[in-house]
Amino acid sequence: MAEVKPEDMVHHPPMDQLQGFEYCIDSNPSWGEAIALGFQHYILSLGTAVMIPTMLVPLMGGNDRDKAKVVQTLLFVTGINTLLQTLFGTRLPTVIGGSYAYVVPVLSIIHDRSLTQIADGHTRFVQTMRAIQGALIVSSSIQIILGYSQLWAICSRFFSPLGMVPVVSLVGLGLFERGFPLIGSCVEIGLPMLILFVALSQYLKHVLVRHVPIMERFSMLVCIALVWVYAHILTASGAYKHTALVTQISCQTDRSNLISSALWISIPYPLQWGPPTFNADHAFGMMAAVMVSLIETTGAFKAAARLASATPPPAYVLSRGIGWQGIGTLLDGLFGTGTGSTVSIENVGLLGSTRIGSRRVIQISAGFMIFFSILGKFGALFASIPFTIFAAIYCVMFGIIAAVGLSFLQFTNMNSMRNLFIVGVSLFLGLSIPEYFSRYMTSSRSGPAHTKAEWFNNYINTIFASPPTVALIIAVLLDNTLDVRDAAKDRGMSWWARFRTYRGDSRNEEFYTLPFNLNRFFPPS
After folding, report:
1. Angle, to 10 degrees, between the axis of helix 121-148 and the axis of helix 103-110?
2. Residue 128's pLDDT is what?
3. What's phi and psi for 15, nearest 5 deg?
4. Which ranges does the record mark as transmembrane (predicted)?
5. 41, 78 Cβ separation under 8 angstroms
6. Residue of 310, 66, 353, 367 lying closest to 216 (CA atoms)
7. Distance from C-alpha of 285 to C-alpha of 103, rounded to nearest angstrom
């Protein structure tokens, strides 16, 4: 076999902008195509918007109408927060939706003795929702202060490409429980959806209709429509009439009874459940979820910038986005969504799947969220899609985000044993520690931390149940303390140096400048 010469080997130089996108952050497809792509992002956001209320509202004592109203409210606030973030926050094409990070402290509030003693179900639901609102309003101040004071910008200067690899990767990989385990609960719907989506979006992506790669860009809508009809036929034929409740919930269309329970027209408004109630224990416990959401959002912003073919967001822009997310969590508390906000990971993955990173598309999707949350029956129709269909899509979208995190390795020296140690340990413990907490909570109905101080328990159980948060703690600590003096180049710091300040690279102004010439009043640092 002939010896391969070094000059004949293929070299792939590191690239601070991901190439191959049809439209990047500040370029736009035609209006017709943008509207269709925006609707696709809206459909994808329904998974989380329905799953969280479906899980929490019955535990709060609410009925189907309460659940439908919470879903509408969550979608409405998601639309508002998405518009605010894309206009005035990081300006990245990110959907700001409900977060699972808040489930632990919310469950703690639900099981509070003062609330569980209320006999009437609807009254208990309203009182519990008001307690959650109060905790969200108080805890949102953490993100608002860290963001607008630029404290998070200072913290982010310790984040190197090496340290961000496990964080961004586990933003995707850490959600593995919402992938195939949910498909397995209704394999006759989930598995065909997964196979069909991969086939259309990848193997048929070069199919053109009027010079548009229709399957690459709209395969998700096509697959959902086909499998949704198939699922409805199974439901209408009575295939699940005598099956277990878990199977019915996973497989049937509108098992959540959203269509029958939703009003035709309903406009969510602040304090619609009544004035919030405030409790110090609840607020302190919720602050842990706010910190987890902050870290997960930071990783998602890094991934979104990559999948929008933009440069890494400067520290100033990142901090500005966190401040606006704090405003979003405040709005969650005022409107009563039952959870806080974070970047929708699945929608970030869809940017990569479609190769469309346009900001305008996400803003259009926010318009759909607001519109269909007001027209309750129509929104509930789309929200009746079985969870299993979304789980099949998540398998692809979360995988894309994990791969984006691994792509940051191109800026580092992976022939360094130091770097191999940091990446390996933080990735492994980032998965292993949260898995231990998850199994412990499943088996004993409480987390490993179960002291008499409930707020402390929520803090520990929430922080260490989040894979990206555990990964950030370990990776950033090791990266900034282990042989750091001579490792700047190996860590990839030289690649991100010019993106640490707003004026460090001319492209920052192109991607991240505020609209309406607002930079005159809020000059970047």
Report:
1. 140
2. 95
3. -130, 125
4. 39-58, 70-88, 94-110, 131-152, 158-176, 183-203, 218-240, 361-383, 389-408, 420-438, 458-478
5. no
6. 353
7. 11
Per-residue pLDDT of 426-447, as tens digits, reads 999 999 999 999 888 877 777 7
Lowest mean pLDDT among 20-29, 270-279, 285-294: 20-29
Residue 468: how many other CB atoms lie within 10 Å: 30
Q: Which of 226, 249, 181 is nearest to 392 (CA)?
A: 181
Model confidence at 38, pLDDT cuts 50, 70, 90, reads: very high
46 exposure class (CB count in 10 Å sphere: 0-12, 13-18, 19+): buried
Distance between CA atoms of residues 56 and 110, nearest Å: 9
pLDDT digits (tens, 9 = 90+) for 207-239: 888 888 899 999 999 999 999 999 888 888 888
343 backbone dihedrals φ, ψ, rounded to 5°: -70, 135
* 194 vs 188: CA distance, rounded Å: 11
- One-letter-per-residue 3-state SS of 207-234: CEECCEEHHHHHHHHHHHHHHHHHHHHH
Taking CA atoms, 136 is separated from 13, 26, 85, 287, 288, in Å, by 45, 33, 19, 8, 11
Contact indicator for 95, 342 with CB cutoff of 8 Å: no
Are 296 and 102 spatial neighbours (Cβ–Cβ below 8 Å)?
no
Residue (of 255, 251, 233, 205) closest to 389 by Cα position: 251
The β-bridge relationship of strands 96-98 and 212-213 is unpaired
Residue 213 phi, psi (nearest 5): -70, 80
The tokens describing 477, both together, are 């600590």
Q: Report DSSP letters for 87-135, one per residue.
A: HHSS--S--EEE-GGGHHHHHHHHT-HHHHT--SHHHHHHHHHHHHHHH
Residues recorded for the chain: 525
